[in-house]
Predict the structure.
Amino acid sequence: MAGLDSLGDVRGRRVLVRSDLNVPLAAGSDGQSRVTDDGRVRASVPTIQELSDAGARVVVTAHLGRPEGEPDTRYSLAPVAERLGELLGRPVAFAHDTVGPAAHAAVEGLEDGDVAVLENVRFNPGETSKDDAERGAFADQLAQLVGPSGCFVSDGFGVVHRKQASVYDVALRLPHAMGQLVATELEVLRKLTVDPARPYVVVLGGSKVSDKLGVIDNLLGKSDRLLIGGGMVFTFLAAQGHEVGKSLLEEDQLETVRGYLERATESGVEIVLPTDIVVDTAFPSGEREPQPRVVPAGEIPADSLGLDIGPSSARAFAAEITDAKTVFWNGPMGVFETAAFAEGTRAVAQALTEVDGLSVVGGGDSAAAVRQLGFDEAAFGHISTGGGASLELLEGKELPGIAVLER
Ligand code: ADP
Ligand code: MG
């Protein structure tokens, strides 16, 4: 599929780049918000840098959070643009609107090699509209910013599964190409679906089973072992007839999960569940010190909830992982945001760094966990920037933002 080279000479041309700059922010002591995890900003740099080095006038569009189609200062990209400038080592212009007068002024002020960032694309209702005409009208406005010699580069891997104006509709209106990040992500994820080296182990966690049903369904036929942790594990334990106390439980998925357990046995795929669980009587909050207790997975007390996989399970999971030639991990094993419930996630992450083969981390929170726990990102084969997009690729779905680039 066409990479940046396919655009020809970009010197002096305006290039609209859809990046994924959806990063967590927190207010500093001075009240200014700052980027707390810049992983996605760093992942966006190579494509922007390459275009800038080639003399393009780079116009970056991206979203942050879920504003409801109107400006909301909590979701401003201004602090992110600042971080991008630091990483690029050059000033980055910031437009306080997306397609309005400020955007036009910023774009007109660009010299060859300059970079501008437009305000949060989701401040505009057209971006995520289900109505093709409304989305199209907004895409027209985005396309007008780069003018008749302009072009579009799709590099926001985290959004390529979305049929949105800045991902899909602009590509119908401008000459287009795939950025480096999207190209790399596709290449790695393809290795997971086309003839992966075996044993192929998949580790799933996170909060909800229902988010990950499609991928479980698909991987049951492809992976050798499926290790399950995180909040979704309790629906599996309940499906096996265990009491799970106050743990996260999706009753409406019990039947589906029972079906998976049966299919796994029939197809020779091993589903590995934790044998011990770290519980507490309340979900962690600032108001009370955690009181973690380890109990057998089948004996979660009625007044407690499971918040991490236990130490024996963590060791068992780690052994399964280090033994594999291909590993895909999505979803933390516990509520890693609290240190008392982070050890399962740490053990899994550590094991991934020891894999002699391909290890891939997918999912926003999993990637954040890896960094928060102090792991060197280079120790992993690949850390995907896109949770939903990577899962949908593994499910074998066609992603609108990728399919449109082939036209
Ligand atoms: P990712 O973004 O990597 O795909 P998810 O969004 O599915 O991961 O899930 C991440 C969240 O799951 C984390 O915020 C974590 O605290 C939560 N989580 C993990 N284990 C549990 C649990 N046992 N109970 C409740 N929440 C959990
Ligand atoms: Mg998440």
Q: What stands out?
A: The first helix runs from residue 39 to 53.
